[in-house]
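User: Could you write out the 3D structure of this protein bound to zinc ion? I've included everything you need below.
Assistant: Certainly. Input first, then the structure.
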Amino acid sequence: MNNPDRLIIFDTTLRDGEQSPGASMTRDEKIRIAKALEKMRVDVIEAGFPIASPGDFEAVQAVARTIRDSTICGLARALEGDIDRAGEALKEANSGRIHTFIATSPIHMEQKLRMTPDQVVEQAVWAVKRARNYTDDVEFSAEDAGRSDIDFLCRIFEQAIDAGATTINVPDTVGYNLPDQFGATIRTLMERIPNADKAVFSVHCHNDLGLASANSLAAVRNGARQVECTINGLGERAGNAALEEVVMAVRTRRDLFECDTGLDTTQIVNCSRLVASITGFPVQPNKAIVGANAFAHEAGIHQDGVLKSRETYEIMRAEDVGWSHNRMVLGKHSGRNAFRARLEELDIVFDSEEELNAAFRRFKDLADKKHEVFDDDLLALVNDAGFSAENERIKLVSMKVCSETGETPDATVVLTVDGEERSAHAQGGGPVDAAFKAIEAILQTGSVLELYSVNSITSGTDAQGEVTVRVQKEGKIVNGQGADTDIVIASAKAYVNALNRLLQEQRAHPQQGNV
Ligand code: KIV
Ligand code: ZN
């Protein structure tokens, strides 16, 4: 194909991805992910929902200040306060977009909004015009378009374009559509809306039936030129279309698509690891493109074929999505420069020499216990080294755990809480249970532990264990992570990390509430 159209990649990991229970991110974590997305040449980064909380506002503002090459987008309901807050947060962006939305399906209009279709159209037009006061780049979404009446969609989209929307987004909010049907919807909309040529048509698919990527691709084959997606398919409920799947399907099957993305796909694996380690949502081993087994050939017959000719069983090259860049190993003799250089390749840049030195000391400690340090070890170590320590009120000072056959395990834990040292002793069903009980005895949070999982970061008995915990209190759900070669210590770090997050501010949800 000579000149394929550009397929715009709109990443919403920092907004819809963050709506996964427990996946909330701090401002600094969002900046790290945004930098990795910019390096991958993502076109648009939806950085958050500025009206949700002061923290969300600051995060969008900080991402808008930092990122120069990608457009930064803020989400806003079709409400004055939302749009003004998004406009304010994006003021310093090199290129800023306001994404405003209102629901259009009968069930949402009647049950949630309690508005008539005419009122919804009027509100949408008003919202687009208001957003245009802040930027020429305005996206309008019809929430639950996947269950909306096609005539009504044609009407509202035509008027939104007339009001100044430059991107029209068609979300399958509840993941209800099937690929051929969704593709036909996009084609019909683009054919029937008289001013369709004045906007880019976009899709935003959820994965409730496991069809988010397939639906997005069907839409692209029928004319959509923007796909909204997330790294690792993170997102509300079953998640969103996975960026890596959409991008690699279009790249690999160029014969079937009249468009291509501008992405540097060799950054995909790095981005995936970064998002998994920051959010505490591990990637399943058999996940397409970014799963540990995605390019592993276990069966003898496959290995034989791949050795003779790679194409016998591989449709993509592992190095094209960044796997080969992840093999470099550091050891106890590696110096500070090698450490810094490798972290920079992983998009981790230190703000100060002290931060670098602290992380380097931890690296040396780890390299003493574990002879080869891999990229995943480094990511875990940097997360541990206090990149997100800014708001941490609770810190683990020390712990001692006794576990002996025939005896009840017990733990003594020392924490600092707002700088004040406190300790407690507790017994439990196992050493982790005892440690958690001691921590709760100090903090008295009244929270409930909903998930506890341990993953080995690399192979071998000297591997670091990465522990993820999910904690819930009064409907607020947070994840915490900790890594250590001692999994009881990793568990305590993860628990403390989650409880720190629990103490942070509460955020509003964009799709709840009246409009
Ligand atoms: O799923 C959805 O409809 C959304 C909108 C806000 C675009 O996330
Ligand atoms: Zn969504």
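The two ends are 44 Å apart (CA to CA).
User: Perfect, thank you.
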